[in-house]
Amino acid sequence: MATLTDPIADFLIRLKNASRAGNDSFRAPHSKMKAEISRILKEEGYIWNYEVDTSGKFPELVVKTKYVDGVPALTDLKRISKCGRRKYSGSQEIPRVLNGMGISILSTSKGLMTGHAAKKEKVGGEILAFIW
Predict the structure, then answer these.
(1) Is residue 2 part of a domain?
(2) Which run of H or E residues covers position 35?
(3) What is the predicted pLDDT for the residue at 3?
(4) Of 38, 40, 42, which is closest to residue 113 (Cα–Cα)?
(5) What average pLDDT does the segment 4-31 reach?
(6) pLDDT tens-digit map of 73-88
(7) Measuring CA to CA, how many Å separate 3 from each of 10, 104, 131?
(8) Which of 27, 54, 84, 127 has the most CB atoms at less than 10 Å from its CB?
């Protein structure tokens, strides 16, 4: 397997491709940040469930994609902060995604959270992705 320079982007693209291809689930290498992103996606209703599979040599994250009447719950996503250019935002400047129809995921000093939760907590941070 090739070395990844951006494992978060790899995870998000696996999610997007699995949803568009109609797959019930997909696997990705496990990390704490990917598990937290999966937790947020489950809370917001973009995936059914996720679990950590430790039966192999390395732990893997198994994510079950969600469909509503045969249409993927996740329409699209965009990685904002990249390896070469990080994007930070204060609590007052957190952008709305599709006029409130989508979510933004931020890495804050209080952990990973949605943009709405970060505004409520009055914390800013690195904008990881927009999901709608």
Answers:
(1) no
(2) helix 32-44
(3) 59
(4) 40
(5) 96
(6) 999 999 999 998 999 9
(7) 11, 27, 25
(8) 127
**CB of 77 within 8 A of CB of 69?**
no
Query: Among residues of the chain, what percentage have pLDDT more than 90?
Result: 95
Q: Which of 9, 63, 56, 17 has the alpha carbon at shortest distance from 40? A: 63
81 occurs within a structural domain: yes
Distances (CA, A) of 1 to 17, 39, 73, 123: 19, 26, 30, 38
C-alpha 125/C-alpha 90 separation (Å) is 6
Query: How far is the C-alpha of 12 from the C-alpha of 38, rounded, in Å?
Result: 10
> Is residue 97 exposed (0-12), middle (13-18) or buried (19+ Cβ within 10 Å)?
buried
Whole-number pLDDT of residue 4 = 75
Domain encompassing residue 19: 7-72
Domain end call among 28, 52, 72: 72
Tally of domains in the chain: 2
**Same domain, yes or no: 97 and 125:** yes
Other CB atoms within a 10 A radius of the CB of residue 129 amount to: 21
Cα–Cα distance for residue pair 114/94, rounded to 1 Å: 10
Average pLDDT over the chain, rounded to an integer = 96
